[in-house]
């Protein structure tokens, strides 16, 4: 059995401002650093083998802080874990998008990455991961929209009625290509 924890990075200034981050490299803010520390402490009670992160600094730093708490030296980056590209919408708030492109902005060609492209790269990564690290306990630190897309594929019956919280943990067990969600969007370490 392989265990995989999908973790959203800690908070950033753009999260608080409601700006679309996408592939723009925005660092963790002070709260995000503290969230990552608290998550590292929480996860230190569990055995984990390896950490993969997106190469964007907000995910990478979150992973490094967790790794330090767990005593894990094996941290790897994979660009397939990167956030969904927002194209021209990156750096804008919802109000700014409405003013600039109108209420139908989501249907416009603004250079945003398609759901199919996200799923193709995400599932390719997970397929490679399961082969390379079968039977291991793996932490993946990535981004909210990217993780939500994967969850639609991995756990289609899962009700995703809330935004994934910063440093939330969503955990799966994988047996014979069957993914079972054990925990969803959990931030018990922040209370």
Automatic annotation (TrEMBL):
Entries under CDD domains matching the protein: HP_PGM_like
N-terminal signal peptide: none
Protein name: Histidine phosphatase family protein
Pfam families xrefs: His_Phos_1
Keyword Hydrolase: yes
Keywords: Hydrolase
Top-level taxon of origin: Bacteria
InterPro entries: His_Pase_superF_clade-1 (IPR013078), His_PPase_superfam (IPR029033), Phosphoglycerate_Mutase (IPR051695)
Disulfide bond in keyword set: no
């Amino acid at each position: 059995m392989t265990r995989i924890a999908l973790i959203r990075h800690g908070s950033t200034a753009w999260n608080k401002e409601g700006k679309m981050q996408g592939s723009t490299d925005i660092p963790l803010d002070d709260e995000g650093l503290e969230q990552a520390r608290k998550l590292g402490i929480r996860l230190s009670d569990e055995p984990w083998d390896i950490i993969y992160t997106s190469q964007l600094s907000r995910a990478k730093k979150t992973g490094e802080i967790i790794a330090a708490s767990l005593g894990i030296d094996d941290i790897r980056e994979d660009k397939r874990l990167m956030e969904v590209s927002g194209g021209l919408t990156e750096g804008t708030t919802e109000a700014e998008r409405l003013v600039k492109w109108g209420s139908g902005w989501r249907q416009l060609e603004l250079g945003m990455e398609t759901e199919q492209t996200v799923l193709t790269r995400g599932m390719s990564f997970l397929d490679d991961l399961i082969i390379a690290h079968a039977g291991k306990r793996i932490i993946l630190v990535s981004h909210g929209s990217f993780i939500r897309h994967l969850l639609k594929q991995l756990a289609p019956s899962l009700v995703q009625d809330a935004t994934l919280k910063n440093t939330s943990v969503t955990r799966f067990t994988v047996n014979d290509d069957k993914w079972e969600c054990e925990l969803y969007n959990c931030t018990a370490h922040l209370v």
